[in-house]
Write a structure and sequence with these properties.
The complex is a heterodimer of chains A (604) and B (588).
Chain A: H1 8-54, H2 59-91, H3 106-114, H4 118-132, H5 137-149, H6 153-166, H7 171-183, H8 187-200, H9 205-217, H10 221-234, H11 238-251, H12 254-267, H13 272-285, H14 288-301, H15 306-318, H16 322-335, H17 340-352, H18 356-369, H19 374-386, H20 390-403, H21 408-420, H22 424-437, H23 442-455, H24 458-478, H25 486-499, H26 504-520, H27 530-545, H28 550-556, H29 587-603
Chain B: H1 3-15, E1 18-24, E2 36-39, E3 48-53, E4 62-67, E5 70-76, E6 83-87, E7 98-103, E8 106-111, E9 114-120, H2 128-138, H3 144-157, H4 164-170, H5 174-184, E10 195-202, E11 212-218, E12 222-226, E13 233-238, E14 243-251, E15 255-262, E16 266-271, E17 279-282, E18 287-293, E19 296-301, E20 305-309, E21 315-320, E22 325-333, E23 338-345, E24 349-354, E25 357-363, E26 368-376, E27 379-387, E28 392-397, H6 427-467, E29 481-488, E30 493-502, E31 512-517, E32 523-525, E33 529-532, E34 540-549, E35 558-565, E36 573-578, H7 583-587
Antiparallel strand pairs in B: 1-28, 2-3, 3-4, 4-5, 6-7, 7-8, 8-9, 10-11, 11-12, 12-13, 14-15, 15-16, 16-17, 18-19, 19-20, 20-21, 22-23, 23-24, 24-25, 26-27, 27-28, 29-30, 30-34, 31-33, 31-35, 32-34, 35-36
Helix pairs in contact in B: 2-3
The chains are: A mainly alpha (604), B alpha+beta (588).
GO biological process, one term (chain A): regulation of Notch signaling pathway
Organism (chain A): Astyanax mexicanus (Blind cave fish)
Family (chain A): Belongs to the BBS4 family.
């Protein structure tokens, strides 16, 4: 009942099929007619031959004529047969074989490709290319993509180029050619091909984005910026924001980079990578509140984010929140158990909790994992100083100095160690070097002054004391919120009293104020020496996390003149003096304080 | 005694929301989510599973119908099925749906599992220039070479691509061209395309059992909507790329929305009365699954992400998946008002997501390649999956199963409670620390003293070595030489190879000799002194000589090699060769 309603379209659709069948019928018909004619002729000749037999001729004549007619009849039937056969032979190939559609398996190839089932995909492609003799553009395209994923970039490039020949109007093919060139490191060639692709397809963010990336590699930041902004106008993608931010960072324009990352975070608020990068940038600028906010966000979305954990943890450490930081570090230690900065930070956490032995074992592990990291060595030296293991401290500090010969604090710590090792001459030289290198830390001068005072060189001590005051003033001027470690202040006051420096009053005032403020916000980070300590932890986090760490920058600096530096590790100790610490009755507490004040600095 | 099994049972029961209804690991099904449908084919209220099986990928393609756990029928298909849908094509009673199987350029319609109609895609427009050229060829006005040149010219410029015939012709060798042209020139040129995806769209009513139109996407980047009865093209829309996945909602006569994922990694949203896409979502990787949840679109990407978008293309959320997506489907339970997305992963798991929250996980014995949720038999919540190895899994959602609405983001990760691996403090360590504290100064001084002594000793040894040329590297500026020696053999005869190299930039070294110094009781050498040829800079000169070990006591000694310069008594180089013990004699 339903089939009676035959759809009209079916006729249309098979109409063209009928044309070929029609010609077939026609041919068959012609053959049949020919065959019938020849049969008729045959019959006629047989009749003729029998008639001939009855003809009134001689026997030979009759036989000859009838045989002739029979022969003619046979010939005709043979010729007609061959004729029909040749006709058929000639006509059949006219209905040429149906050529398979080139694209008929494209969907299957695509389906397997996006499911990452590359083995099956390759098998289908091979089959398809055999069938089409390598003309199926999409099969070649996907094969090239797979080859590229397998690392055979040169081969993939050749295949993409052949795709571009098969279909020169497709910007996709050019895009992939350019991408392969880019991966091969031929950035200039890639730019050219991308430009060509851009001519074919004006509004493709991918082309603009990749052009931008190419320009970054050719160090043409201006064009790169332009292209990436164009890409953002066309379509917003996290990747583009990332790249744009990177450009600004490479140009050293942190403010602008932050601007970009802010926009990126607005667009894609759950991208932990963006959040972490923004957080680290804020941290670099010292905007800890904002940094913490973003890092915290990143951690909410991905509690296992290693970079964010390290950065956030180091900030918590700065605030003395060691337990929380440790909690976070445990997560990171599970995912990345062999990270030197992580173990460094864990070590400093233990240090802050006054678990010195654990701190040392963690720091030693960090040092084992990264033996040339001076920050770890610095911290190790510090912890050993605290543990009164001066000989060990000396070794770690001198190793750190060998790796990083331009940091005043290192020389100062070394001097402290040397003082305790009774090597006053070298301690003094070390202090001198520290003062030369350091311009802002009053602690260096104070410690030096203490040493000089203990040595009885009051004049020099006074000079150092004045130096220290200058630095303090400078710090207060540059940033009125600067707070000083109470121990530093106390020590300075005692020193001032001992030296009978007239400026005593001047110093005590800010000291007291700062003391109060310190009490009011005991767990807030600040103080002039904070950078000394915090930078260790923070710098660590940075170095691994953001990739623009201080250590890298420092490493690129020209080698300082090592010869001129009194590098204690290479020098033999001064003549062993049998004398004990010549300290006056007032001094012992000072000396102790002096030692303590430094470790604290780093602990925070 | 029974506590352990009880516990296990409890664990299994509480963890699973599904009943394992059927699992056939050797069902031999090679199919995709697009080729699976559940339909009440016989109008008996019992849904059957219709599968378009790709067979081996080249042959043995079948249309299989399952009922319960058994195969009900099998129809042979001529080509690979691209997609399969069941739809109601008319209002006739009984209301049994037809099956449309898209395959190549055709749609085969089956009614009552019998072939009913074949729809062929309209042919594409042929480039008029190409047509001209071929008609000229037919009249024998141009020879194959000219034809080739002209076709190449057309290929490089024209907007309409060449037909298969011309493309194939261009790939031919010159001697094959003539017969090819003769073979094909009489036929009209045709350009055909193939179907890449298929869907259904209700015609004019939103009811469950309303008549539906077929929506097809083609390789020629077009979308057609077909009339369900006459199979005429009701509407034609074009896309910027080839469609791969589609989702259709709405009614043709009122308003509809076709969401199409394309091969260029974009998703386009088509609406009624617009021949071009209305909205576009640009993804950063290829979409693998596309599912509509209410008014939102959920896309699973090849980059192991799951995105949610509004129907206007605004991004709502992103979830990161633990493994690549293989396929996706919607889990719709209208009776309970529950909708979720089933995401099959390459890690042999199927995740159930409600928006961005993971509400349940199903472990499967193999990687799931196609997935479908719906009414099968008489059971509403049935999950049908086929695996990469060809298995068929049927699971039934328990009626008591509850999907927790809670945000499944776990609080702190488990790792947070794992103790840090920090070694304990040992007595030895404490003792050492105490010792250092007490004797720091002495230790330091002793160390520095020893360090200086060692440095001094090293420097002296170095100077001595330099002075007496004991090193295998020559320090002199006129003869910068390098030598190393290799001993081969087990004994008693050893082969001694000296590699000498002139490390100067350009100057050759002449007049050199080599002499050996050894214990004559232990070793013998045919020539213990010989001259060496001129040494060209940079080249390595291997010089072989043989040493015989005379001792059978298993002892060995050092052989010293000197490189000498004529007329000088001090050697330029000295090498000490530690001879191995002769094993040959030990055997004797």
């Amino acid at each position: 009942m339903e089939s009676t309603k035959s759809p009209t379209t079916s006729l249309d659709s098979i109409a063209h099929c009928k044309i070929c069948t029609l010609s077939c019928y026609l041919l068959f018909f012609v053959c049949m007619v020919l065959y019938c004619l020849s049969a008729l002729l045959y019959c006629c000749t047989i009749v003729l031959s029998t008639l001939c037999l009855c003809a009134p001729w001689s026997l030979e004549e009759r036989c000859f004529v009838s045989l002739c007619t029979l022969y003619i009849a046979e010939m005709t039937i043979k010729t007609t047969l061959t004729l029909t056969l040749t006709l058929i032979y000639l006509c059949v190939p006219v209905s040429a074989p149906e050529l398979p559609i080139l694209e008929r398996r494209n969907w299957l190839i695509h389906l397997h490709y996006i499911r990452k089932d590359y083995e099956t995909c390759k098998a289908i492609i091979k089959e398809q290319l055999q069938e089409t003799q390598g003309m199926c553009e999409y099969a070649v395209y996907v094969q090239a993509l797979i080859l590229r994923l397998e690392g055979k970039i040169q081969q993939s490039l050749e295949l993409f180029q052949s795709c571009a020949i098969l279909n020169p109007t497709s910007s996709d093919n050019l895009k992939q050619v350019a991408r392969s060139l880019f991966l091969l490191g031929k950035h200039k060639a890639a730019i050219e091909v991308y430009n060509e692709a851009a001519r074919l397809n004006q509004k493709d963010w991918e082309i603009s984005h990749n052009l931008g990336v190419c320009y970054i590699y050719t160090k043409d930041f201006k064009s790169a910026e332009e292209q990436l902004n164009l890409a953002l106008q066309l379509n917003k993608h996290d990747m583009t924001y990332m790249m744009l931010g990177k450009i600004y960072l490479l140009e050293g324009d942190t403010e602008k980079a932050i601007e970009i990352y802010k926009k990126a975070v607005e667009f894609s608020s759950e991208n932990t990578e963006l959040l972490t990068t923004l957080g680290l940038l804020y941290m670099q600028l010292g905007k800890y509140q904002k940094a913490f906010e973003h890092l915290g966000n990143a951690l909410t979305y991905d509690p296992n984010n290693y970079k964010a954990i390290l950065a956030a943890g180091s900030m918590m450490q700065t605030h003395g929140d060691f337990d929380v930081a440790m909690n976070k570090y445990r997560v990171a230690a599970f995912t990345v158990p062999e990270s030197p900065p992580l173990w460094n930070n864990i070590g400093m956490c233990f240090f802050g909790k006054k678990k010195y032995v654990a701190a040392i074992s963690c720091l030693k592990r960090a040092n084992y994992l990264s033996p040339f990291d001076w920050k770890i060595l610095y911290n190790l030296g510090l912890v050993h100083l605290t543990m009164q293991q001066y000989a060990s401290a000396f070794h770690f500090l001198s190793a750190a100095i060998n790796l990083q010969p331009r940091m005043g604090e290192l020389y100062m710590l070394l001097a402290v160690a040397l003082t305790n090792l009774d090597d006053v001459d070298n301690a003094r030289r070390s202090y001198e070097q520290a003062i030369q290198l350091d311009t802002s830390n009053p602690l260096v001068n104070l410690n030096f002054a203490v040493l000089l005072y203990n040595q009885g060189d009051k004049k020099a001590a006074l000079q150092q004391y004045q130096e220290m005051e200058k630095k303090v003033n400078m710090l207060v001027e540059s940033n009125s919120n600067t707070e000083f470690d109470p121990e530093l202040i106390e020590m300075a006051q005692k020193m001032g009293a001992a030296l009978q420096a007239g400026e005593n009053l001047f110093w005590s005032k800010p000291g007291k104020e700062s003391k109060n403020s310190q009490h009011s916000s005991s767990n807030k980070a600040a103080s002039s020496q904070q950078p000394l300590g915090t930078n260790q932890a923070l710098g660590q986090a940075m170095s691994s996390a953001a990739g623009y760490s201080k250590s890298i920058r420092l490493a690129t600096e020209p080698e300082p003149d090592v010869e001129s530096a009194p590098s204690p590790p290479t020098e033999p100790p001064g003549e062993a003096e049998a004398e004990d610490d010549v300290e006056e009755a007032v001094e012992p507490p000072k000396a102790k304080e002096k030692k303590k004040s430094k470790p604290k600095a780093v602990a925070e | 005694m029974s506590s352990v099994p009880m516990e296990m049972k409890d664990g299994a029961v509480s963890s699973s929301k599904w009943l394992d209804a059927h699992y056939d690991p050797v069902a031999n099904l090679y199919t995709f989510s697009s080729c699976i449908a559940l339909a009440d084919l016989h109008g008996d209220g019992e849904n059957k599973l219709v599968v378009g099986d790709l067979g081996t990928g080249a042959s043995n393609m079948k249309l299989k119908v399952y009922r319960g756990t058994g195969l009900l029928s099998e129809n042979t298909l001529l080509d690979l099925p691209t997609g399969l849908v069941s739809f109601l094509m008319d209002q006739h009673e009984p209301r049994t749906p037809a099956i449309a199987v898209a395959s190549g350029p055709f749609i085969y319609i089956y009614k009552n599992l019998r072939p009913y109609f074949k729809f062929t895609l309209p042919t594409l427009e042929v480039n008029p220039l190409e047509q001209d050229v071929w008609s000229q060829a037919r009249e024998d006005m141009i020879d194959p070479m000219t034809l080739k040149e002209m076709l190449e010219g057309i290929r490089d410029k024209a907007e309409i691509p060449l037909s298969v015939r011309s493309l194939r012709f261009l790939m031919l060798e010159p001697q094959d061209m003539e017969p090819y042209v003769n073979l094909h020139k009489q036929q009209p040129i045709r350009r055909q395309t193939v179907i890449t995806c298929i869907g259904t769209l209700k015609k004019n009513m939103a009811d469950e059992d309303a008549v539906s139109c077929l929506v097809i996407g083609t390789e020629s980047q077009e979308v057609y909507i077909l009339d369900p009865e006459a199979f005429t093209i009701l509407s034609k829309m074009s896309l910027p790329s080839v469609p791969t996945l589609m989702d259709v909602t709405g009614q043709f006569d009122v308003e509809f929305r076709i969401t199409i994922a394309c091969r260029n990694g974009n998703i386009y949203i088509l609406r009624r009365d617009s021949p071009k896409p209305k909205y576009c979502i640009e993804l950063s990787s290829h979409p693998v699954g596309l599912v509509r949840m209410g008014k939102n679109v959920v896309v699973g990407c090849a980059q192991e992400t799951l995105h949610g978008y509004t129907q206007k293309g605004k991004k709502l959320w992103t979830t990161y998946l633990p493994a690549p997506v293989t396929t996706m489907a919607v889990l719709d339970l209208p009776t309970r008002g529950f909708q979720a997305v089933l995401v099959a992963l390459a890690s042999c798991e199927v995740h159930v997501y409600r928006d961005k929250n993971l509400v349940s996980t199903i472990k499967t014995p193999d990687v799931v390649t196609s997935i479908c949720f719906g009414r099968y038999g008489r059971e509403d919540g049935t999950l049908i999956m086929t695996t990469k190895g060809g298995g068929l899994i049927v699971k039934i959602l328990k009626r008591t199963a509850v999907f927790d609405e809670r945000d499944s983001a776990p609080g702190p990760p488990i790792a947070q409670s794992i103790r840090l691996n920090v070694p304990k403090k040992t007595k030895l360590y404490v003792d050492q620390t105490m010792r250092e504290r007490e004797n720091a100064v002495a230790m330091h001084r002793a160390f520095q003293m020893d360090l200086s002594r060692m440095r001094l000793a090293a420097a002296r040894a170095y100077v001595k070595a330099l002075e007496s040329s004991l090193t295998p590297m020559s320090a002199s500026l006129t003869e910068p030489l390098k030598m190393n020696a290799v001993v081969q053999g087990l004994g008693p005869t050893f082969k001694l190879t000296l590699n000498i190299q002139n490390t100067a930039a350009s100057r050759p070294v002449m007049n050199l000799a080599i002499s050996f110094l050894y214990d004559e009781n232990l070793y013998s050498m045919k020539t213990a002194f010989f001259k060496i040829p001129l040494l060209v800079p940079g080249l390595n000169y291997p010089i072989d000589t043989f040493v015989e070990c005379l001792s059978d006591k298993g002892i060995s000694d050092i052989i010293k090699v000197f490189v000498l310069r004529e007329g000088k008594s001090a050697p330029l180089l000295t090498a000490h060769i530690n001879m191995p013990v002769s094993e040959g004699l030990a055997l004797n």
